[in-house]
Write a structure and sequence with these properties.
Elements lengths: L2 H12 L15 H7 L4 H10 L4 H4 L5 E6 L12 H19 L2 E6 L5 H11 L5 E4 L6 H12 L4 E3 H21 L7 E5 L3 H14 L2 E6 L2 E2 L9 H6 L11 H5 L4 E4 L8 H5 L6 E4 L9 H6 L4 E4 L14 H10 L7 H13 L18 H8 L2
Parallel strand pairs: 1-2, 1-3, 3-4, 5-6, 5-8, 8-9, 9-10
Antiparallel strand pairs: 6-7
Helix pairs in contact: 5-14, 6-7, 8-9, 8-15, 14-16, 15-16
Length: 377
């Protein structure tokens, strides 16, 4: 199947992927129109003006998410600009609606500095029940999310960071059951210290405090480096700061490899240096750090990728619909680290008997959204 050709054909045929529909599907009579619009709607506007907390009671903000990007870090395409990011934002809206019946609106911003993005999002935030930040480049994405979380009274969630981290933790929990190891006893190597890698590192540390070695394009992130930006300096509190060298140095005796970087970086020779029954999450898309067949031949016990054509797909869509469903339904204004861990455990618990080829539920598993939403409270 040539998915590039199919994608172009489908998007052209349907002029995109999403639309809006009336919630009241019964006949629109003259009386209803007079209530939904003028003159009746004035009473609703006055009620909200008198008591702003009634906004989600009387409008669709109770079920509405803004999917926002500046197009600076889109999939594996990089900085392709806001217009190029729109098909991906529409796709996110499709997933919200299909899996969690959440309405969402893609919003692309032709501004890129943190202050500009933050000001714009704050200005439009009253229209929404939650904010999903998407495909905003690191390190700007960290400041943007942190400030918006502090300054808004609705949930703000950068899915490239936290959705990836939640599903990764869920998969790791079950992969460790397969190999009979405990995360707190493991050596974990994470290559890629951008948005996803940073969030994964923090969540694994919070969950079990394993030994974690972070690696970026210049080598191991540790005290020996004098070229770390502010965000990577903050990362030092979660990793083994005494480690130094390259990925090859880091991988020796590692129990777990997590890649959110570039294709082909993990070789068979590196896998041979890992501990007994190694776990590999090669999450670079569309081509992983090591292909599953090569990894298995090299002795990997459990392999996961970001792809749907192999077992154990680590996909953000496994997590974010349920997280937002729970936040909207349960009046959650801040999505916390404890929420993320609870979501990861809820996902992991849906796999009753983990195996090397089944550590994560499929995104189409209809138990996912209810199970996750239940713990976001």
């Amino acid at each position: 199947m040539n998915y590039d050709e199919l994608a172009l054909e489908l998007h052209k045929t349907h002029k995109g992927k999403i639309t809006t529909r009336l919630r009241d599907t019964s006949e629109l009579t003259k009386e209803k129109l007079s209530a939904y619009y003028t003159p009746g709607v004035a009473a609703v506007s006055k009620a909200i003006a008198d008591d702003p907390s009634l906004l989600p009671t009387y409008t669709w903000t109770n079920n509405l998410v803004a999917v926002i990007s500046d197009g600076s870090a889109v999939l594996g395409l990089g900085n392709i600009g806001p217009k190029g990011s729109m098909p991906v934002m529409e796709g996110k809206a499709l997933l919200f609606k299909h899996f969690a019946d959440i309405d969402s609106i893609p919003i692309i911003l032709d501004v890129h500095k943190p202050d500009e993005i933050i000001a714009t999002v704050k200005a439009i935030a009253p229209s929404f029940g939650a904010i999903n930040l998407e495909d905003i480049a690191a390190p700007q994405c960290f400041e943007i999310e942190e400030r918006l979380k502090a300054e808004l009274d609705i949930p703000v969630f950068h899915d490239d960071q936290h959705g990836t981290a939640v599903v990764t933790l869920a998969g790791i929990i079950n992969a460790l059951k397969v190999v009979d190891k405990r995360l707190e006893d493991c050596k974990v190597v994470i290559i890629g210290a951008g948005a996803a890698g940073t969030a994964i590192t923090k969540l694994l540390h919070l969950y079990a405090k394993p030994q974690i070695i972070a690696v970026d394009s210049k080598g191991i992130v540790g005290n020996a480096r004098d070229d770390l930006n502010d965000q990577k300096k903050k990362l030092l509190q979660y990793v083994d700061t005494s480690a130094a060298g390259s990925l090859e140095d880091a991988i020796t005796d590692a129990d777990i490899f997590i890649g959110v970087s570039q294709p082909g970086l993990l070789t068979e020779e590196m896998v041979a240096k890992m501990a007994h029954d190694p776990i590999v999450f090669a999450l670079a898309n569309p081509t992983p750090e090591i292909m599953p067949d090569v990894a298995q031949q090299a002795g990997v016990a459990v392999i996961a990728t970001g792809r749907s054509d192999f077992p154990n797909q680590v996909n953000n869509a496994t997590a974010f619909p349920g997280i937002f469903r729970g936040a909207l339904d349960n009046g959650v204004t801040k999505i916390t680290d404890q929420h993320k861990i609870a979501a990861a455990e809820a996902i992991a618990n849906l796999v009753e008997e983990p195996s090397a080829d089944y550590i994560i539920p499929a995104v189409f598993d209809d138990r996912l959204v209810p199970a996750i939403a239940k713990v976001i409270k």
